């Protein structure tokens, strides 16, 4: 423009270039943030880890005359969110049941809620420690089945009982990600001897629970 002094034109041009740079930078940042969001959302599956930190088998006896298995077990379970990038939120209670020889011990008396619905665990090592003073109950031999009864005799002779704690729940990732919800399950295989009565401490080596299909647990 002929009427515009050179100084002014130069200033305008510089302004325009600066603005364009800012806009490109903003777009670049937006794209970077969006791809990070998508990568985390799609690549990171919500997961949980569980360990049994302590277990004490107070009672595990089968009375053949009345055909009843009586059990009493105390436990300490730790549930963690292993992901460093995302948090998890429990969309259903994380429940646990005891099983012996793949037979779930009575449902009503033995379903434990380890983590309530809505509980959130931040990224990183967010731990939830649950101490269960006693999971106890009686199960009739009829429900247990002949194979499990036979297995009881075998294990009773060795003095070591193999009892599984089965966990099942449902979690989703959160926040600032595309929500992915999934069912989760785990099997914690315990090998326990009957603890002596009284307060005597029994040495227990931590057990890592293995991922398992939650569907497999409803037998
Ligand atoms: C289960 O064991 C604990 C610890 O020994 C005991 O305090 C509790 O009374 C037991 N429960 C039953 C029903 O025997
Ligand atoms: C579990 O349910 C059965 C049958 O519904 C009942 O007989 C039993 O008393 C219940 N046990 C407990 C501990 O609630
Ligand atoms: C289990 O083992 C104990 C001790 O070894 C024994 O006294 C008991 O009779 C056994 N019970 C069964 C049902 O085999």
Automatic annotation (TrEMBL):
Localisation per UniProt entry: Membrane
Main localization category: membrane
Keywords carried by this UniProt record: Membrane, Transmembrane, Transmembrane helix
A GO term from the CC aspect: plasma membrane
Residues spanning the membrane: 22-44
An individual GO BP term: defense response to other organism
InterPro entries reported in the protein's UniProt record: NDR1-like
This protein's record includes keyword Chloroplast: no
Protein name: Late embryogenesis abundant protein LEA-2 subgroup domain-containing protein
Organism of derivation: Leersia perrieri
């Amino acid at each position: 423009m002929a009427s515009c002094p050179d100084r002014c034109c130069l200033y305008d041009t510089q302004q325009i270039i600066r603005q364009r740079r800012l806009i490109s930078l903003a777009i670049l940042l937006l794209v970077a943030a969006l791809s990070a969001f998508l990568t985390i959302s799609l690549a990171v599956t919500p997961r949980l880890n569980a360990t049994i930190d302590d277990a004490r088998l107070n009672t595990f006896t089968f009375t053949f005359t009345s055909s009843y298995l009586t059990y009493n077990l105390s436990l300490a379970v730790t549930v963690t969110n292993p992901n460093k990038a995302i948090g998890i939120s429990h969309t259903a209670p994380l429940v646990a049941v005891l099983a012996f020889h793949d037979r779930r011990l009575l449902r009503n008396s033995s379903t434990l809620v380890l983590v309530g619905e809505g509980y959130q665990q931040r990224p990183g090592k967010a731990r939830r420690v649950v101490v269960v003073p006693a999971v106890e109950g009686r199960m009739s031999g009829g429900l247990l089945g002949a194979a499990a009864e036979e297995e009881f005799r075998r294990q009773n002779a060795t003095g070591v009982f193999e009892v599984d704690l089965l966990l099942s729940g449902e979690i989703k990732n959160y926040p600032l990600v595309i929500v992915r919800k999934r069912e989760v399950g785990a099997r914690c295989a315990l090998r326990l001897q009957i603890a002596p009565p009284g307060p005597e401490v029994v040495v227990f080596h931590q057990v890592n629970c293995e991922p398992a299909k939650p569907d497999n647990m409803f037998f």
